[in-house]
């Protein structure tokens, strides 16, 4: 990750904290893998401190963060809330993502996601073997 991107991430996080309470965050996708190109968007996963948020508030905050990201990065930005997204996406994010804001809660979160992912993966594989033959 280059210094310009790191600086923009810091600016984004600083300004995003004024909109919502961020517990921890990752950058993931092509930028985390070092495979970005001119058309790549910037994928940011955020764990909010406020866990029980209604759908309307979630959409409002996500929209504001996307607009903030576009103005800072001058690229399309995708925001994922780790509070609500699927275990498969969470697993992918913790596997390939780069932590851009950290807290103690992240370790517990990653433990829970790994346990849920591998528990569910067993049943998913079992189902696929039986039903998709």
UniProtKB/TrEMBL annotation:
<dbReference type="Pfam" id="PF18765">
    <property type="entry name" value="Polbeta"/>
</dbReference>
<dbReference type="InterPro" id="IPR052930">
    <property type="entry name" value="TA_antitoxin_MntA"/>
</dbReference>
<feature type="domain" description="Polymerase beta nucleotidyltransferase">
    <location>
        <begin position="18"/>
        <end position="105"/>
    </location>
</feature>
<protein>
    <submittedName>
        <fullName>Nucleotidyltransferase domain-containing protein</fullName>
    </submittedName>
</protein>
<dbReference type="InterPro" id="IPR041633">
    <property type="entry name" value="Polbeta"/>
</dbReference>
<dbReference type="InterPro" id="IPR043519">
    <property type="entry name" value="NT_sf"/>
</dbReference>
């Amino acid at each position: 990750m280059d210094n310009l991107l790191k600086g923009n991430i810091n600016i984004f996080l600083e300004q995003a904290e004024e909109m919502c309470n961020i517990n921890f965050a990752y950058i993931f996708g092509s930028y985390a893998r070092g495979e970005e190109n001119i058309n790549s968007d910037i994928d940011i996963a955020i764990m909010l401190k406020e866990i029980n948020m209604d759908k309307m508030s979630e959409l409002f905050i996500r929209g504001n963060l996307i607009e903030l990201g576009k103005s800072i990065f001058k690229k399309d930005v995708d925001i994922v809330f780790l509070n609500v997204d699927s275990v498969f996406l969470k697993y992918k994010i913790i596997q390939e993502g780069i932590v851009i804001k950290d807290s103690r809660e992240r370790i517990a979160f990653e433990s829970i996601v790994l346990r849920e992912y591998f528990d569910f993966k067993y049943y998913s594989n079992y189902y696929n073997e039986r039903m998709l033959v």
